[in-house]
């Protein structure tokens, strides 16, 4: 596997300090004291089963509708800005929810929660990825950064759910909503303190329509991305089934009530611990991935066949842990393959795809469970886990490819390279009495080039301004004709020659600097 | 017929066209004459040829900007260059 060329003078910085506000915000907005009492509160203001179904439909409609557009907005405008708007929607939702005396108000609150979920999805992951890339020059520490984010999120969720239950025991149910608001406001402050990565800023404005088309095309068409996206969808499917349907097994097995608490806590903790596990470098070894695949299939087979409650609980926890762990290196493959300019849009789009796959899958699981019992439904999970295991062995082992966005990273250039290639002071002056315009400091033939000459050339090409870079790549790398270049870019031959001359001249000056230590 | 004389400073301006063989006939003749008597410019041409050869050994994967929006930005930049 080709390694990225090391650029001399590049200081590898640590992204942790810059990510601190991201972690703080993720903890704070996951504090949702109302979650454990929500169903109880809804019943108390008059919800019946049908209306709870309507509320599920509200999410089902709002989230996928808004998710990708808000991701594109984050790419074009500001990820921090979109995050702030999302948190404002969350404040509105929680306030309205707490004030609700009837079903309609609560449905409006649910609508705003949907807006929050849609806008937040993909945004924080994209901030983390681009911050890591901006601070370190590659994506090597992304898995650890995102693993920590998952951990912080689940700690916030679990801690606040436990606290919410305790609060509801002594205060009115509504109090859990109002007490949540200060945490969201604090999350907003943390986001405001965040220094946003600038990688998604394009050199030139791109028309909105073009960006939308590119975003959707990247999600649906890209060859390199398709198995990664498919595997993300499958692993999220399994995780979501465990969260939403996991308790069904407990009911079917008439598990003692005392097991419900640990079961729920274990699932939620699995979301966080899976993030930590998945960020370990072992998750790139083929044998570890094969082993993980086998254990995943074994867990689903246990769900389909066993009737021992403890075995079912362990199978569910291990399965959740493993699919979340797999999602971490997968997320890196996804982000490595997409440029910063469309990052949040594509990440949100993949999340929408997951959601759109989950809805029919959930209906099928529900139907099979009704008709033939939860164990039969378990065989469907075996199929999903087996397909996922095979895909994982194909997609995950080995070093990830170079991030496509990395070349746009603000790598400190060794020095601005001269333009033109030979500085004016290397010639005698035009009024020189002896030899006007002749060399004062002539170039010399390069005797030996050394092993790293090609690497130097590559860096020089990558650092060229885009028009020069594209022209020199077409002419000298792809060895196409001048006529081809002119017609591809709508250039005159003179313009083509000027760009090609500047490009080759810049590369030459860099080589001269490299080989002779000559200051440009 | 008089052949225009080239200085070294003028010659290096024309290296791209010289190597591409797109110089006007009279300038091409002058360039060859200049090169014949100028080791400095011969070294300059040799350096450019080395650069072109090395660049030709890069693969498309080495240098392709996988950013799908890049082409679009590029067209905008070219259009702006032309307007000037
Ligand atoms: Zn000369």
| SS field, number of helical segments of chain A | 19
Number of strands of chain B: 0
Q: Quick one: biggest sheet of chain A? A: none
> Can you give the mean pLDDT of chain A?
82
The top-level CATH class of chain B is: Mainly Alpha
Indicate the proportion of strand residues of chain A.
under 5%
Shape of chain B: elongated
Question: So how many helices of chain B?
Answer: 6
Largest interface: A-B, 66 and 50 residues
What is the count of β-strands of chain A? 0
Protein model, in words:
The complex is a heterodimer of chains A (520) and B (84). With 520 residues, chain A is mainly α. Chain A has three domains: 183 residues, Growth Hormone, Chain: A (Up-down Bundle), CATH 1.20.1250; 190 residues, MFS general substrate transporter like domains (Growth Hormone, Chain: A); 93 residues, Arc Repressor Mutant, subunit A. Helices cover 70% and strands 0% of the residues of chain A. The two termini of chain A are 33 Å apart. With 84 residues, chain B is mainly α. Chain B has one domain: Arc Repressor Mutant, subunit A, CATH 1.10.10. Chain B has six helices and no strands. Chain B is elongated. Chain B starts with 7 loop residues before the first helix and ends with a helix. The relative contact order of chain B is 0.10. The C terminus of chain B is likely disordered. The interface between A and B is large, with 66 and 50 residues. The structure holds zinc ion. The site of zinc ion has 6 residues of chain B, from helix 1 and helix 4.
